[in-house]
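Appendix B: complex inputs.
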Amino acid sequence: MKQDLKRTRIAEVLRTGRIGSRYVVMGWVRTRRDSKGGFSFVEVNDGSCLSGLQIIADKGLANYESEVLRLQTGCSIRVDGILAESPGKGQKVELKAEALKVMGWADPDAYPLQKKRHSFEFLRTIAHLRPRTNTFGAVARVRNAMARAIHAFFQERGFIYLHTPIITGSDCEGAGEMFKVTTLELNYAPEKDGAIDFSRDFFGAPANLTVSGQLEAEIYALAMGDVYTFGPTFRAENSNTSRHLAEFWMVEPEMAFCDLDGNIDLAVAFLKQIFASVLTDCGEDMQFFNRFIDSSVIPTLEQLISKDFQVLTYTEGIDILKKAKENFEFPVDWGADLQSEHERYLCEKVVNGPVVLIDYPKEIKAFYMKINPDGRTVRAMDVLVPKIGEIIGGSQREDDYETLLAKIREAGLNPEDYWWYLDLRKYGSAPHSGFGLGFERLIQFVTGLANIRDVIPFPRTPGNLAF
RNA sequence: UCCUCGGUAGCUCAGUCGGUAGAGCGGGUGGCUGUUAACCACUUGGUCGGCGGUUCGAGUCCGUCCCGGGGAGCCA
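Resulting structure:
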């Protein structure tokens, strides 16, 4: 065995491999088919691409009878061989093995993955093995390509990548239930006046996992101009749906000297560039999703890249819904938040694509959003997409000190808790805008996977902390 | 958290009116073949989610709990 040769990834063998050259490939066996002509076909996958490499192993190998004929799905092997043109259908090249070494066996009686389709529900119960399947390998590569594309998009535009804290002292970010962080022994927590005494906790105060980096991102936007965060976010909501996770990744750009129009422009350019990158960088994986998961993903993405996004005000959206001949379960009224069925109708029936909804009534949006001159609506924007719903939520931020102070009080919040946030409006305030994008929802949209638990390696949901 | 549908072999599922457990795939053995979701034959394989109840008898009916899917709410 030529131990001096270095391992070559299968993606590279298939892309640049030369017929007649010697390669070393290492990976996991997907299937083995024997020919009684005295040789076997072994399909190997190493995760570098969707395709596997067909190995031709014949009885000339010293361990053909003893090992090759015992190879099963899941075994890891090393193959040293010569790349050859394949006479069979289904692949252009194959590796003629000069040596095949079994690195790790996988008992076929016990190994849960078979060379057939498994349900996503079952694969979730074996999250340590599911990346070895076609679908989850493709998801992992697409997720990686999208993360890289996100950084590329912002870096090209001069945005600073900002690391906002995971642990936060403020429970006033207002975006949902928070996980508590403590080193106190829960059964023996110190008490004072009948309540837990957090002054004796690690931070000397109650601490939580962040639900958003936005408020901190505003700090840096009002110093660096354009910043973005890209990191984990935590919500302790008891949400049991196909589009909610307790731990998910969020992208949050924040731009100084930028109004809502600039915010919309960035969001649209962002989505288009990410979609285009995935189609170029992950062509094979996307073909796979388009064929086996959802036959509309590639046409949809291609359309979005070239098409203008429809921008509607909330008021226009309400008008359209009121005139619609659809029997909605929930009534449509100006001032009420849109239900999922309303959002879906606008995306799927009216526009047939994503919709940017702006200028929502102030009562149904967060206190920090900038009030419009009409006094009733705020400069909010939601980007809604078919099937998934809200994928981006953002706004121009209120930059006027007195107005923000009043709105904090109106919301029943304590201005003292927001002293530094208010300070930003006191010293060198400037118009600024930003949005939050759910990374996993974007991956769902791109891949067509119906359940958000299948686009993150290790999903955290209520009652599920395995792996 | 609410509504709804499910939980039967390693996996995907069928199981009629309450009468004593089935198929395909997978695994094993043999055959055949430059094969590729290979094919053919034989074979292996079960605490019917847990607990309790009704009944001569429960996979099947009732109660309860656990887990999963879909929908809703909260949101990204």
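The mean pLDDT of chain A is 91.
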